[in-house]
Give the backbone structure.
Amino acid sequence: EAGVVQSPRYKIIEKKQPVAFWCNPISGHNTLYWYLQNLGQGPELLIRYENEEAVDDSQLPKDRFSAERLKGVDSTLKIQPAELGDSAVYLCASSVTSAGELFFGEGSRLTVL
Amino acid sequence: DAKTTQPNSMESNEEEPVHLPCNHSTISGTDYIHWYRQLPSQGPEYVIHGLTSNVNNRMASLAIAEDRKSSTLILHRATLRDAAVYYCILRDVQAGTALIFGKGTTLSVSS
């Protein structure tokens, strides 16, 4: 069974440019999460979806970050415009239900120059 | 969310047991104790979880104190592949909240 798939694995952009990350969760997993991980720190939750509904987006910086999960399957996280401080690893995870074990992808490493 | 306290780092030798401690003095009755680990350049992966009783699985054992204010993750025979950051997380599954990660414990394993 395929795990959580994220792309791209690496992305280097100039500041003020837009960037998007894509996540394909495990089939049948209703809950999807986006986390941000800075170097040496634990992952921080950005947003949680139950099917296509964002049920917890309190930590998402809405001035520049946006996310969507159309049809309750794949999800996209966008940053526009990117800032130097956005350099981090963006992790996607999914679970069967909101109470279930989380399965993480390998992450997308963003470098903003 | 209730907080956990873990040592920043620990060291072990290969094939020896490792005991990773976690303090969670403000744990509530509905909080489950979860452990995840993160290998280098990978996303976190589930290790084990429990509520009150000790738990065993193929990866590890979880020993929970009687008052539930602390717990210990036990790796019975450490291998080089067990070198990772280990996160102890309290999660109220009834509330359906997401995992809130701390800094975890970085485990080094030497041959």
In short: The mean pLDDT of chain B is 94. Chain B has no helices and nine strands. The first strand of chain B starts at residue 9 and ends at 13.
